[in-house]
Amino acid sequence: MAYLGYTRPVRTFDLAPIDLGFFTDAPISYRMDVHLPVAPAVAWGELTRQNTLDWCRVIRKIEFTSPAPYGVGTTRQAALGPGFVSLSEVFFDWNEDAEAGRYRNAFQVERSTVPGMKRFGELTEVQPAEVGCRLIWTFALELPSNAAPVTAFSAPTAAKVFRTVENDTIRHFATFTPRA
User: Fold this and answer.
1) Residue 94: which of 117, 55, 64 has the closest Cα?
2) pLDDT at 153
3) Residues 63, 75: contact at Cβ < 8 Å?
4) Which residue of 70, 73, 101, 147 has the fewest C-beta atoms within 10 A of its own C-beta?
């Protein structure tokens, strides 16, 4: 299977499916809850556009592989870091209530170039706030039960990566200017 930027075949590993409950029950999770100085629709537009998260240093590229409009069943490919990690994602939840300024989507990783992950997913929620909006972003991961030493090592490492995503996102929206 070819992944973003790879010219040679890449070995991928299948992950188990998840549901919304996984974001509460996952053995490893990171939750980002921040206020952004933009309207909910603006934040949602940035988070769901083609090549989103291009402001994040740890993300090489994110590409929707389904045509717009996006919703349940939409697929995406992500390349992380210097390109050693690729993820094949599918959205299983997608809710947009523009009138209320409330948006939510969630995806599960179906395949990854990283061995040893059992389940991984991401839940993104945008809600109105007194000023701007509130972004609640949850990342959830499960490794196989026989990977306990890896889990202990991975949690602090993953937390550092997610903090970088959080800091880069706050910085991006603090100086946000809509694209032409």
Assistant:
1) 64
2) 43
3) no
4) 73
Q: What pLDDT is recorded for position 159?
A: 76
For 144, other C-beta atoms within 10 Å of its C-beta total: 12
| CA 47 to centroid of chain Cα atoms | 9
pLDDT of residue 5: 54
Identify the pLDDT of residue 1: 44
| Residue 15 β-bridge partners | none
Distances (CA, A) of 121 to 5, 20, 63, 84, 88: 22, 9, 16, 19, 11
- DSSP readout, 89-151? EEEEEEEEETTTTEEEEEEEEEEESSTT--EEEEEEEEEE-SSSEEEEEEEEEE--GGGHHHH
CATH class of the domain at 13-174: alpha beta
Profile the chain (180 residues) by mean pLDDT over runs of 10 residues: 55 96 94 96 97 93 96 96 87 98 98 91 97 96 72 63 91 79
Picking from 86, 95, 130, 105, the residue whose alpha carbon sits closest to that of residue 47 is 105
- Going by C-alpha positions, the residue among 127, 54, 130 that lies closest to residue 95 is 127
Question: To which residue do tokens 């053995």 refer?
Answer: 27
Minimal CA–CA distance to 105: which of 113, 97, 114, 96? 96
